[in-house]
Amino acid sequence: MVKFNHFSIVEKTFEEKNSELKSLGFEFDNKSEKEVLNNFFSVAPIDEASLQASDKLSFTSFLNSNENLNWVIFWTLALQVQDFIVNFEFKPEKSIEFAKSINLPMIDSEMSVDNLISAIYLLLLSRRKNGMSLIEYWVSEGLIPVDNQYHFFNDKTLASFDTAVVKREKVWVETSLDSQKCGQYDLVYVEIHRPAFVGKIPVVMTASPYHLGMNETASENRLHKMETELSEKQIHEIITQPVLPVDPNYEKSKVYSTTEAEQSFTHSWTYSLNDYFLARGFASIYVAGIGTKDSDGFQSSGNYQQVYSMKAVIDWLNGRTRAFTSRSREKEVKADWANGKVAMTGQSYLGTMSYGVATTGVDGLEVILTQAGISSWYNYYREGGLVRSPAGFPGEDLDVLAELTYSRNMSGADYLSGNEIYQKQLDEMTRALDRKSGDYNQFWEDRNYLPNVKNVKADVLILHGLQDFNVTTDQAYNYWNAIPETVAKHAFLHRGAHLPIHNWQSIDFTEVINAYFTAKLLGRDLNLNLPPVILQENNKYESWTSLDGWGKSGRLQHNLGSGTTTFENHYNADDFDRYCKDFQVFKNELFEGKTNATIVNIDIPQEIIINGAPELEIKLKINDSRALLSAQLLDFGQKKRLPDHPVTVEANALDRGRLFKQENLVEIPLQNSPYQVISKGFLNLQNRESLMNVSSILPGKWMTFRLKLLPSIYKLNMGDKIRILIYSTDFEHTIRDNREVTYEIDLAASKIILPH
Predict the structure, then answer these.
(1) DSSP secondary structure letter of residue 453
(2) Which residue among the candidates 296, 399, 459, 468 is catalytic per the annotation?
(3) What region holds the X-Prolyl dipeptidyl aminopeptidase PepX N-terminal domain (predicted)?
(4) CATH superfamily of the domain spanning 555-645+669-755
């Protein structure tokens, strides 16, 4: 059974509710309860004659009867307009119980005209079975006109802008950079989608290095071989310092200025959430940044040069830098249509750019919505002094990603003029990222946004999947915990992998973002009472809850056992080949206890909600001077759990405007499974003291150290079992070192530490 979770509803006074309903055409003054209900359904874009009021009366018959309106009749009618099937999905006499069971917001008072009006107001804000709120569905069906004017309901903008007459414009924004030392500022190509409006409008901006194409052939040719031995490193301390780019100071030639772009386009990739806002009066802007098709410069992949190239667009929207009508730089174009207020959106690399731009403190950036973004590129391609690939992408590194997104080379003229210098810069990147040692260095420091989070002024909305082992949870966790106390922040943590939730059935995420962006970008009060953390509960279907934070100070410790145990690093040739060909085979056999690993099963003695980063304290020795260590923490044993990907509930159920962009409604089902990964971690044992210190390993000598696993929030009940896997090579993530190395662990002196 569906269960809705509403976080977007803003509390209003009765007078405000009545006034907002009047603005939609609902007139309830001086009417009885039945007359109020009749007016509501007669104005609504529905066939009221098809409605059933009770087990014996149609709605029409009820209106003509002497029977009084009660909450049972109201909810019988309300559920039908929410697309639930009367007599089959619910019985009329059980309508209230059914509405409560699916968690619809209700008025818990006796029937009266005022309470009925309040109930109608809440009903419009409630989700229908197809995933749209009733007000948004009825607007898409023509409740209010498409007049290119702003209309608001419960502090959210409605889809009243004509997406059939959207202006699509090309401009080239002048950055503060010269990333290839050409003697002039790099230009970045920008695509603008904006609705017709007489006045100034806000911008929802997505910075996507993928936007203008990907060079998959070049990228695949640069993939790194994972089958290699771990290198022994010299003892040393690693020293880096935050260094931001120094912009050149070139003279800017004077050119003719206009307020109209001269080039347009017809089709391009768009982001679903941006489409939603386009129909509500927000311009939608896409920029791919330096080193991409139709732009200048080098694809520097994650450093502040790339970040500044995205920031330049916000500067242009606020009149602080120039843009041109073409790449020839002959005519300047001004953004006189923009009100200067910007939100940034995007997932993965796109969300990463919003993290980075926010750390510049640029004026005009009011809020970021970062979905599965990277806050430190080292932690994406490295961990604990090791090369560590993101889930599903063994062999990828930052130079591989640079090749993928250097779409300038996909333009013949740019290839001829720029490829030679680009290849030299790319070779330098490959050297600097240092796959041999896996250590942190200045290259990675230059791609770490965390030291500059102190500069963030924009509100921060974070969305991250707790089963995301591509962009791992520490990326969000570290950024979240570095945000200044003066900055508003909220996190949505779901049980999926590397994916968005704006089209999920169980939560009104899109409506929450609507309320937030409407306030921040249109200069209205933010009245939304949003908790710090909104968490999808594990092992429960369509259940979300509120938390006050991410990362708790309590610690539950449990020893790993008694005596000692050993495991080997080396696999025979057949097994090694099988695992190299398909890392999923390795994962399955690892979890089932069929690989080289120490396995510890622990029965949980009490209910605990893990909240933060678990740690393993391990006493270990090896018979070599170089070694890596991998560990995973599992919720183990057959039971119902939420998998990491949703299924389609209804195809094309969501209308993002008015017959504009349709999207599937999805949800994560509850399924039987033998285990689920809670967390994992990896470490080069030469970096066991800290990431910034490389020490020696003495063969045969015991070492005690801590291995921090990825942060999560996960509830375990008394009697649940966790499985801890400690092993060496991970065929999905680490280099595939097949040397003959023996690991011995003192279980009695080792423990798991769970934050709660």
Answers:
(1) G
(2) 468
(3) 3-143
(4) Galactose-binding domain-like (2.60.120.260)
